Amino acid sequence: MSNKNLLSGKDKALAELVERYETSRDQHISIYMDAEDLADIAEWYDRNSKFDNAAEVIAYGLELHPGNTSLLVERSYLHLDLYELEDAKQAAAEITEERPDVTILRARLLVEEGRMQDAELQLDTLEDKYSKENIIDVAYMYLGAYQYDQATEWLSHWRWDKEDTEYCCIMADSLLDRKNYSEAQIYYNKLIDNNPYHPQYWMGVARCHLGLLEYGKAIDACDYALLANDELGEAYVIKGYCFLELGNDKEAVKCYEEAVKYNSISPAYLYSIMGQIQIDKQEWEKAYQQFELALQQEEELKDPITRSSIYSGMAICLQKLDKETYEGQALDFCLKAINLDNFNIDAHLLGGLLYAQYGEKERAIGLWEEIGNYDNTASTWSDVAAYSSKADLFDYAIQALEHLKEGKPDYPDLYQRLTLTCILGGKLEKAQYYNQYSWSPMERKYIEELYKDIAEAPDGQSAQIIKKYLTETSVHKKA
User: Fold this and answer.
1) Is residue 337 domain-resident?
2) Helices 462-472 and 444-456 sit at what angle, rounded to 10 degrees?
3) N or C: which end of the chain has fewer CB within 10 A?
4) At 375, is the secondary structure helix, strand, or coil?
5) Are the beta carbons of 166 and 194 closer than 8 angstroms?
6) Do 168 and 135 contact (CB within 8 A), yes or no?
7) 472 and 410 assigned to the same domain
């Protein structure tokens, strides 16, 4: 519950308004509420990720005030926050009144469709286009659509007092969204100096610390936010994530359970987190069971990335469990995960391995190439090399490691891995070449003997001779 005594002015009035609505709802008391008040309550719920509550109060409000513009505007923004663009457009189409917030909403819908010029033309119709209020609302509209340059450009149309609360809010949120965490903190701290118990300012600070990997400080900032509102679900979500990063699974789960209690995340999301925790512990059966529970409530998960991680997690579990009864299902899960999130690295890596094991080498390499193009980082190419080596596609593994060498020649154990992979791939000269750059080169005689043993090994057994070197990155040292 919000600690209203710690809130100031407008925030305190809104907290009291929300409490009045919830009391009447819970006690089944019929009361009349103004449409603008109900719209404010809906916006508060939406801002605090209580989407079901927001939808409920909007529906209630439209029963009392059919066709009300403010409520329809909130309904449209709620659909946008839930990735439901068509529903957002439908809600906006029901609006007949012309006013600035409606114009800005229509512009936002055009931005979501990628029609940036049309959005600006829509904004040109605003009366007193560059009034302070319009500038603030349009800047936040662009921030909500991740169009940071446009937000900054609109801010330039007003001569701001750098200590102005509204200016500090926009700058803080903009810098945070751009991942300029240290700069964002400066503005959030200014806001906190003027209003020490504003929960959203502390949440901004928490996100900054999170971005800087300062997990303990992020937890502290969340605790300050919870002093003002102990039902702030997003604070529990961030705390849960931080505790996971700090290796404290028990506290993490407690926080996520609180987030479920206050409707910031669904039970399905909690199950997915539990599954990931079990994967980290290599408890594959338990992890799979958690993912199954999450999948049973998949419709509650609006975020495609989370849904994708559930499918890739299930694929990993099946592959580790090596259950014959699920042959082919792990690959199906990988492909579903990729369909939901093209940037799911785990799904691409494992999917490629499974394709290779089924003899479809071109498809395997296609998946690895795809994720390498999406995420051209050293760690991704290192993983691609490891998976392609596991699939006995050593020529491609060499290519992946050489790609890694071009971008990060000092990557740990790179030349040892290149040496050993070249031996496995039957490329003796290349192995000897890369060996000389290794931090601990093998003797030439040893390389030749190892190469000979590999060449003479029965099919399917050659990799076993030195595969441990590829996974443990330990090599034979000079005597």
Assistant:
1) yes
2) 130
3) C
4) coil
5) no
6) no
7) yes
> Which pLDDT band holds residue 9 (cuts at 50, 70, 90)?
low
Residues 345 and 420 in one domain: no
Residue 366 sits in the same domain as residue 409: no
Residues 6 or more apart in contact with residue 94 via CB below 8 angstroms = 67, 72
Q: Are residues 22 and 87 in the same domain?
A: yes
- Which tens digits make up the pLDDT trace of 309-340? 999 999 999 998 876 556 689 999 999 999 99
pLDDT in tens, 103-162: 999 999 999 999 999 999 999 999 999 898 899 899 989 988 888 888 888 988 888 777
Q: Which of 375, 410, 437 is the last residue of a domain?
A: 375
Instruction: Quickly tell me which residue has 């290519």 as its tokens.
Output: 399
Within-domain flag for 158? no
Q: How many domains does the chain have?
A: 3
3-state DSSP helix/strand/coil percent for the chain, to nearest 5?
A: 75, 0, 25
Is residue 440 located within the same domain as residue 472? yes
The torsion region of residue 474 among left (phi > 0), alpha (psi -120 to 50) and beta comes to beta
Distance between CA 39 and CA 46 in Å, rounded? 10
Spatial contact of 210 and 185, defined as CB atoms under 8 Å apart: no
pTM of the full structure: 0.70
Backbone angles phi, psi at 26, to 5 degrees: -70, -30
Are 368 and 429 contained in the same domain?
no
Domain that holds residue 439: 399-479
Burial 43-76 (b: 16+ CB within 10 A, else e): bbbbebbbbebbbebbebbbeebeebbbbbbbbb
CATH of the domain at 362: 1.25.40.10
